Amino acid sequence: MAFGIRRPELERWKQNVQNGQISFLTHYWIDHRFPGCNTVTKVGCSDIDKLADWGSRYGLKREWMDLRNDYPHFDLFGDRQAEILKAEGHLDQLTRLTKSPNE
């Protein structure tokens, strides 16, 4: 289940992916298969080779891509999620979801 994103963010991500850009979308996510992880970042691009090349820089394997829909992407979570978002200059996507309401 995904939540914590606004429709304009999702639409912008979809458009960027369809346009062949590497695009990042981070949202809350609950999946019993991944205990302790409550966010996921989808890194998408419709150009599969471009996405595979991008992922290889971070040790992500082509076979890990989610190709089941119109928006090919890698799912990032846990420590790797934070490391990659920081390296790509998108750590704000994660920190906005992990700050307490009083910050």
Global mean pLDDT = 89
Envelope shape: globular
The number of domains is: 1
The percentage of residues in β strands lies in 15-25%
What's the tally of helices? 4
Low-confidence segments, given as residue ranges, are: none
> For the CA atoms, what is the radius of gyration?
13 Å
What structural class do helix, strand and pairing data support?
alpha+beta
Order of helices and strands: EHEEHEHH
C-alpha end-to-end distance: 26 Å
Q: Tell me the total number of β-strands.
A: 4
Main beta sheet: strand number and arrangement? 4 strands, antiparallel
Strand order of the largest sheet: 1-2-3-4
Q: In percent, how helical is the residue content?
A: 25-40%
What's the arrangement of secondary structure elements?
Blueprint: E1 2-3, H1 7-18, E2 23-29, E3 39-44, H2 48-56, E4 73-76, H3 78-87, H4 91-98
Antiparallel strand pairs: 1-2, 2-3, 3-4
Protein name: YneQ
Organism: Planococcus maritimus
Give descriptors for this structure.
single chain; 103 residues; alpha+beta; four-stranded antiparallel sheet; 4 helices; YneQ
